[in-house]
Amino acid sequence: MSITNLLTNWSDFRQQHPSAAHPHREYKWAMSIDLDSCTGCNACSVACYAENNLPVVGKEKFAHGHSHHWMRIERYWDNDGREFADQGAQFLPMLCQHCESAPCETVCPVGATNHTADGLNSQVYNRCVGSRYCNANCPYKVRYFNWYNYPTTENVWPEPMNQQLNPDLSVRSKGVMEKCTFCVQRLRASMNDARTQGRLVIDGEVQTACQQVCPTGAITFGNLVDPSAKVGKQWKQQQVDLNIDKQPKDAEEKAAKLRGYRILEELRTYPSVMYLEQLRESAV
Amino acid sequence: MEKDIREDIAWAQINKDVLKSLESPRRLYWVILLIALAMIGVAVGSEIYQYTTGMGVSNKNNSHVWSLYIATFIFWIGMSHSGTLLSAILHLMHADWRKPIYRFAEAMTTFSLMTAGLFVMVHLGRLWQVYYVMPYPNERWVWPNFQSPLVWDMFAIATYLSSSVLFLYVGMIPDLAICRDNIHAGWRKKLYTIMSLGWEGTDRQWRNFRITYLTIACFLIPLAVSVHSIVASDFAMSNMPGWHVTSFPPYFVAGALYSGCAAIITLFIILRYVFRFEEYMTLPIMKKLVRLTFAIAMVWTYLNLIEFASVWYGHDQTAKDQLIFKATGPYAPYFWAMIFFGSILPLMLAFKRFQTHLPILFVVSILLNVGMWLERWMIISPSFAHGHYPWTWDHDQWPSLVQWGIVFGSFGWFTLLFMVFCKVFPSVSMYEVKEMVYHRTLALKHKPAVKGDY
Amino acid sequence: MNYFLRLSVLLVGLVVSAGSYAANTVQPLTTADDLGPKVEQPFEFPHNRHAGNADKGGMEINCMYCHTYARRSMVAGIPPVQKCIGCHQSIESVRETPRIKKLFEYWEAKKAIPWKKVHDLPEFVRFNHERHIQRFVFAQNKPVQEACGYCHGDVKTMTVARRQKPLSMGWCVSCHQKDHPVDATSTKTTHGPNDCWQCHK
Amino acid sequence: MIENSFNRRNFLKVLGWGGATAALSGCGNTSVEDGKEFVTSYVETADYIIPSIGTYFNSTCAQCDAGCGIMGRVREGRVLKLEGNPKASINNGKMCGLGQAGVQAHYNPDRIREPLLRNGDRGEAITWEKALGLINEKVGGVNAENIAFLTGVVSGHDKALLKNYLDALGSGHHYVYEAVAPSVIRAANKKAYGVEMPRLRLDKAKVIVSFGADFLGAWVSPVHFSQQYARFRKPDSGERGVLVQVESKMTLTGANADRWLAIRPGTEGILALGLINALAAAGLSVPGDVAAAVGGYTSERVSKDTGVSAEHIGKLAALLKERSPSLIIAGSAAEGYAHGSQNAAAIALLNQILGNVGQTVEAPSSTPFPQMAPTTGNRLALQSLNDNMAQDKVKVLFSYGTNPVFTAPATMKLKENLKKVPFKVVFAHYMDETAVEADLVLPLNSAMEDWATVIPEYVAEGAQLNIRQPLMEKLYPGTLGLGDILLGLLKYRRPDEYNGFEDFYSYLRNAMVTNKDALGGASKDGDTFWEAALSHGGVKMVGEPVNLSGNVSATTLVVPAPFVEDATYPLHLIPAVSASMRDGRNANEPWLQESPDPLTTIVWDSWVEMHPKTAAKLGIVEGDIVEVASKSGAMKAQAYVFTGIHPDVISVPLGYGHDAMGRYAKGVGANAFKILDPVFDKETGELAMHETRVKVTKAGKRVIIVKDEGPAGGNQMGRKIAVRLTSNKVNLSEEV
């Protein structure tokens, strides 16, 4: 890349506001998670460990906050001083929100985290120098740093456990940041297949590991550009627009409410994950 | 009335006094040098451990990714600002009193920058790939991300470091020539000969020298302001509650000048005592310095209050929560210590009797810097501990000994550099002191002096 | 000493101008051919004999006859020993040559041949053979040897394959930035993907 | 799918393809290297093997007894990941975390790799010939009466072979033991519905009242129930189902309930009868004898006894009356008492009154091969084995698929009694607590290396036979499957019958293909049938539907009054069965240890849950190490305080506290099985798991609990993160 190239194509190398010049043409991967279906069973989290070569750090390192759960289940209580949590818990699967205007992308000194053309927030391990600025700037704190050299010195996968490692993606060594990739290895494989066959990926053809296992089917994942994709229909039905930071429906006073919302939307990160609010029966 | 620099001091005397500081050191010097080396040893050992084992040994974690390294980095960067302030700004303002003290202040600038630069490296998870941050044509065809404040940092620090080295060096050339002429053999002779670049004191040389020095000074002032503004933008440009504050750049610059001035007071007292520079580093100078420090302290306090007020009356509830947490949570003792050392303690400096009381000033100036270091820490850690996302809050994080060791060692590194400098280069500018004396004499001769009529 | 000073000014100027020239050269520095080291293999497989031009004594076998996975998988694959034997058991003329004897030794012992990797990218790079073959050979109708040769060089003239191209990232990107026709007949062009996650995962 | 065994075996071989193995130094070397690495190719290959592309094989999960269909992703001869088999009717392509961790059971570094014979304190590696010969010699030397075979749940051909072996020995006892099982409920169901496990149709119900059944977490077939639950919550009609959970300690299911009712421990039956009374009062037609029998359970009295407010009882009764069909489920919380059977019967009666039987409580199908139908286990089996061992009636003991030394309460003195058995053979994956006591340890194949057929206890539709097949070549040549071992032993006893089978695979294939007509393969030839069965992961069988019969007699139903306070041991201990730990057999799989408990988010340790009120009374704060002492023993663990538990109750998870087994399980937490009191259900004689009374005292130390939740706990601090809405504000039928 020469300086001339850099200067002439400057706008291409800059992070654009999502609603500006570059709409997604073929793909925009997005997710929706129905919190009313999520039971907090942790299956997605384990699937993520299996698919993405996440190290099990052990008790001591977990205690120090060095865990690597790209998909973490948060559990909230809403019992404001009542004697019992008598409406149960609120479970929230939290993963990288693949923001369209990701705070992490602008601050990485080496450009190790980028936005891809299909709307993913990429993390390139081999480019990462470990400044951890991306994590500092991530309001969701879904980026996980390799504080130790898990594969070698920490021996997290003792023989023959290492044979389980997924060869489709790297095992990260110390000093690099990592995070949920929307199972990019699966996406790329199916996109390549589709490309070879001269078409686009069909809805349901590719699943993320968490979506695939979810026993209640709370997670929907797909291409937001594809009008036949379930995820797009959900977003549309819930009137959640990817490119705005304040959904007009939230201001409307209506009897029947829509459940879709995005977390910390007001920070203008334009997340690609929509959550559907949990429901509780009022009759009991 | 305290004694100021004597008008009748002979130029040869000045040379003699200053050059004396370059003579073989006393035993105490070696002792301190060894202590400094030991401190560096601690840091190097810690860094080797951290480098080989992984960043985890510093006891940072996923919700608390930055800690003392960045805090201390800002501290050292900040400290570097006073040298520029004293040399460049006061030079342009023709404040003569800076002349006996600016040399070591400049040296301090350079060395604290060098220390700060190390912290950037120590902080990186993959130090061995640090060259990715630099823009150079490479086989990967990849540039760094020019949007990132860290890349700006890299540029700012590199520019500032090279400029301040140049400024220090250019300003030393006439003095190096004096050294060269007063020493007759040995490595020093060779060193001074080369470094004085053939200075003969001709009119043409003086003229070129003046212009060069003035140009660099003019260049340095905006640079210095921009450097700390850029460092401030590391924080202000992010969206962390507690960081996302518009007033951060001036706040950082003020803090920088503040800690720098305090450090100059400390070093002033040490050098004056160690090298018997009472003749040059006089109390009236100290008085001016102290008043300057007091003024900056108040500016800093004001900007601090502005920050709090804008957060308090702003509509960002998260930032407000964060502020309350800082003042009441587990970091409260450090927060209030920072307020005390940074805003209350300097009120002492307003009293005349303290302005020249060196032992008290020595202690106070060190405490001011402790306060300023705490300020940096209080910017970093509480924000991470209590950010946007309650699930990942971490109120228990405490830096490990590895972090403390490296922070501790950085002071040894700075001391080492400074001590070596003092023994190799004149820490008081001889030619500028001469100028000062000359101007004073002139001023005395023409009683109703007209400004600029030299 | 003034001399020295002036000289250093000159030097700085020189470095700056050379640097900016280098940074701004339109041709990337790294696309020139860069011959890799010779690689010792268990025995020498004569690519020239199998794939070389007929006038030079080669048999012009399609690369994908042996490297059969290239069109449908990330990796091109080294053919199973079975494949070598499939032909060579009926080629009596060379049956007793030392290399073929060695081949049969492996076959009879049912042992895999420990070939060495010649084009060994760093482990975090995932080059996809399938997409390149599909694009250049099947969509654009380029001759197979030409398409493979973009990265593997002129293998048909070699015995043991040897790296000819630099395979550096800039070299990859230089091609990905070019506009390539979509298929053999179309005038429409696209360039290769330029997002990091295409190759680094 | 697979043409012949040669190709298949070749495929399963572990082979490193260049670029195909996971790059361990993913971020190291940055330059191109030539000629440093090997690229190994196959000698022979099949067309379907394409390096770098995964192939999927169907099998059956062995992590718990639910029998979900799994699909192993195999690449370059290694199984990489387990996914759900979309064709399996139980789990429809879905999986739980426990199931997925099966791959870690397979690749576990602590697996036993060859048969070990006791030599003093050490195990000495011996060959299989020697091991089997030794067993044959030992069983030949004792009376068949003195041979005991202790297993977990067995079904399919394993069970048939085991039966044949026991027959060949001239009988011998087969004890089927499950440490955690709904055995009282099974008995009560048998009475109430005529079957042990009726099919529960959560998806058809409009209201579910679950008395402590953790069907989303660890109860019977959680993945299946979770899918039904999703349809229950969001049916096509848009009428969202309402879940009410009644229990003393919140389970995962309780955490998902619309209303979680904290009930005084053991009073579930009273509430059920109170609900019947309230329903009758509200106008539901209730048979006269029932109405008379429950007449005394006024809402005031029930409220006083159970601690559930009258308001909630009223609302619940109204809801049950209004929305039909409903489903009432009795779970482990209801059955775990000395009057567990009565509790379960009362709950079944409620179902009956509401007319749910036949609606949401459906009849299962019987399996056409009763000899392969699952034998479910209970704790009574272990009890009687233990008694026999104590009386020196057991000379040779086989143990397979259970870990009784770990799961038996200390009062049973099982470990001591075990020492009285002269020859103990343990089939094991790890050197667990029981294997450590063994005289001969036989290392088992992992579920990813093994052939077996499985008939789960709870089958979602029809009758089915699931197949477990190897997903890759054995990691260690020295391990064998249960089938192979039994076959080997049978060859000594019945050589004519079994010598014809080279291994268990050929036996199984032969058995299946011979019976293909009954297995739904009448129209296919043997090979096609077999391959279809393998590629589907099992076969559907034609089963006769079992008619629901039986009745709960209200007149004979007596539910005792709630507990009297015990001054020395004031608290009830609820040993919690967590979704990932269960009875502890999977504790050596690190993913499970590191995935946080859903409710407390604690990892890598056990804990004592208590209500803030209880904690305040005892002066305990979170992280205090407390001693939990019952009459039968004591254990120490960290205290966790939260509001999902009744103040009269504390709860400790099971499955932790191994002192053997492997690097990930050993020394993690404390074993709550050990301190259980010997109180039994009066009707069935089962151990009443919830009857243990304890006292809790501070042990003096305080730790920082290792958990995922931060200092904010479950508080969102005013941010809009996880949002909750009342369901009447939403129109679900409009949703996509």
Task: Explain how this protein is built.
- The complex is a heterotetramer of chains A (284), B (454), C (201) and D (736).
- Chain B is mainly α and 454 residues long.
- Chain B has helices at residues 11-20, 27-53, 68-79, 81-92, 102-123, 149-182, 186-195, 203-236, 248-274, 283-313, 317-328, 332-344, 352-355, 358-385, 401-424, 430-445.
- Chain B has 16 helices and no strands.
- The longest helix of chain B is centred in the middle third of the chain and has 34 residues, at 149-182.
- The model of chain C has no long low-confidence stretch (mean pLDDT 84).
- Chain C has a two-stranded antiparallel ribbon with strand order 2-3.
- With 201 residues, chain C is mostly helical.
- Chain D is globular and about 75 Å long.
- Chain D starts with a helix and ends in a 10-residue tail after the last strand.
- Chains A and D meet through helix 3, helix 4, strand 2, strand 3 and helix 8 of A and strand 4, helix 7, strand 11, helix 8 and strand 12 of D.
- Strand 11 of chain A pairs parallel with strand 27 of chain D, so a sheet runs across the interface.
Keywords:
heterotetramer, A: 284 residues, alpha+beta, Alpha-Beta Plaits, four-stranded mixed beta sheet, 10 helices, 23% helix, D: 736 residues, alpha/beta, N-terminal domain of TfIIb, Rossmann fold, Dimethylsulfoxide Reductase, domain 2, six-stranded mixed barrel, 27 strands, disordered N terminus
Topology:
The complex is a heterotetramer of chains A (about 280), B (about 450), C (about 200) and D (about 725).
Chain B: H1 11-20, H2 27-53, H3 68-79, H4 81-92, H5 102-123, H6 149-182, H7 186-195, H8 203-236, H9 248-274, H10 283-313, H11 317-328, H12 332-344, H13 352-355, H14 358-385, H15 401-424, H16 430-445
Helix pairs in contact in B: 2-15, 3-5, 3-9, 3-14, 4-5, 4-8, 4-9, 5-6, 5-9, 5-15, 6-7, 6-8, 8-9, 9-10, 9-14, 11-12, 12-14
Chain C: H1 2-24, H2 47-51, H3 63-66, H4 81-88, H5 98-109, E1 115-116, H6 129-139, H7 144-152, H8 169-176, E2 180-181, E3 189-190
Antiparallel strand pairs in C: 2-3
Helix pairs in contact in C: 4-5
Chain D: H1 5-12, E1 38-39, E2 55-60, E3 69-75, E4 78-84, H2 97-100, H3 102-106, E5 116-119, E6 122-125, H4 128-140, E7 147-151, H5 156-168, E8 173-176, H6 183-193, E9 199-200, E10 207-211, H7 222-233, E11 242-247, H8 252-255, E12 259-262, H9 268-281, H10 288-294, H11 299-306, H12 310-322, E13 326-330, H13 332-335, H14 340-353, E14 361-362, H15 379-390, E15 396-400, H16 404-407, H17 414-419, E16 423-428, H18 433-437, E17 440-443, E18 452-454, E19 463-468, H19 482-493, H20 495-498, H21 504-514, H22 526-536, E20 538-541, E21 571-576, H23 590-594, E22 607-610, H24 612-618, E23 624-630, E24 633-641, E25 649-653, E26 693-702, E27 724-726
Parallel strand pairs in D: 7-8, 7-15, 10-11, 10-13, 11-12, 15-16, 16-17, 21-25, 22-24
Antiparallel strand pairs in D: 2-3, 3-4, 5-6, 5-17, 9-14, 18-19, 19-20, 21-26, 22-25, 23-24, 23-26
